[in-house]
Amino acid sequence: MKITLRSIFPSCYKGEYVSPSPKPTKVVATKGGSSSNRVSITDLSYPSSTFSEDLSVSLAGSNLHVFTLAELKIITQSFSSSNFLGEGGFGPVHKGFIDDKVRPGLEAQPVAVKLLDLDGSQGHKEWLTEVVFLGQLRHPHLVKLIGYCCEEEHRLLVYEYLPRGSLENQLFRRYSASLPWSTRMKIAVGAAKGLAFLHEAKKPVIYRDFKASNILLDSDYNAKLSDFGLAKDGPEGDDTHVSTRVMGTQGYAAPEYIMTGHLTAMSDVYSFGVVLLELLTGRRSVDKGRPPREHNLVEWARPVLNDPRKLGRIMDPRLEGQYSEMGARKAAALAYQCLSHRPRSRPSMTTVVKILEPLKDFDDIPIGPFVYTVPTDNGVKESETPKERKRENGHHHRSHHHTNAHKHHDNSEMHKDANESEAPRERKRENGQHHRNHHRHNGHRPHPLKAPKPQNDEHQNGRRSGSNSPDSIAS
């Protein structure tokens, strides 16, 4: 049986005759998306009579559910503000919950429902692109598309819910604990694997909009690529690139793509290098709130990425030195290669994965913040550790206590008559008071000098709140 676009998206093409169907059509996709017969986006971009062309294979793997708008209102409590998760270029996103009461046989689970903003920067074409790509592509590091809704002018997408949100929010939000080094490397590896899967498919895909806000995180910080609205089929045959309108986000797009419109897999590699640099420095790709020479992260940081002596100057101060120095050097050198102005000098994403994978397990991370102590004249040695000083002070305290006890013993005969009348509890209280007085005068001295803790490099939140968010680019 042949499947046509009209049968897959019946309500989207009301201008053409569609034979009635008693049940919503479900799309089925090729497992792993590796088949060279995968549906081409170029065939699906613009609704017209050419879209009646039969698809050579079904779209699926696991079923994509076709939801009605009424069902999605139930799922999200009529898109309640209490379920609002955020908003991007596509439109607002709401949390919902689906179970077999909404759709028999559907696994009960939380979901994220993305509603196309009719006045937004994206439209039907981007919506259809996302349905087609994620309807066919399945990978642990790509977000799972559960279903969609195409009803009159309404366009919605239903995804698995990822509780930790985007990397952008986790990395840049204020008043939160900094992401540890190993977690940052885990996220980088997962995102790299997602891109490598797209690039290495028999029919390659160029993601085109790789950035921190499009990397979503599950509860274990596993990275998943989302938002495929700008994705493109890669060049085929003898073609070296795909010529497109320049679209993406300022600060992430490769320079050669901005200048020529020539899109290749190496354009994604450059964008990955920018995100890797964000993970190392804790800075946004573009931040107009910084001094002028530091507005563009790549221009500011790239010159020192290959210099281990200067690398510490650009590392995220919120890490407080708690990172692998060897791992940081290797990651910085990799970012330097990815950000090369010559696309052919950039590594493939498969190579990137091989380099990054070991970095999350490096064990040369310092145990605690470094505290420097200078030598002084009071007997504290520069090489002493706090534990050694504590031990020495404790020995001094015991010696002093022993000496005082000996003096009390020598004078005991002189004061014997007076002491005999003292109650043991009163003597104990007096000795305790003497001990506290002595400890107050001769106790531990503070460290002569402690290095001040670095100040947190705080930034505004992502696109959803922000004046500092990168601008989208389109020409």
From TrEMBL:
Start and end residues of each Protein kinase domain: 79-371
Localization terms from the record: Cell membrane
UniProt cross-references to InterPro entries, sorted A to Z: Kinase-like_dom_sf (IPR011009), Plant_Ser_Thr_Prot_Kinase (IPR050823), Prot_kinase_dom (IPR000719), Ser-Thr/Tyr_kinase_cat_dom (IPR001245), Ser/Thr_kinase_AS (IPR008271)
Annotated Gene Ontology cellular component terms: plasma membrane
Domain of life the protein comes from: Eukaryota
Keywords, comma-separated and alphabetical: ATP-binding, Cell membrane, Kinase, Membrane, Nucleotide-binding, Plant defense, Serine/threonine-protein kinase, Transferase
Keyword Transit peptide: no
Pfam families, alphabetized: PK_Tyr_Ser-Thr (PF07714)
Enzyme class: transferase
Biased composition (Basic and acidic residues): 379-391, 410-433
Biased composition (Basic residues): 392-409, 434-450
Name assigned to this protein: non-specific serine/threonine protein kinase
Annotated source species: Abrus precatorius
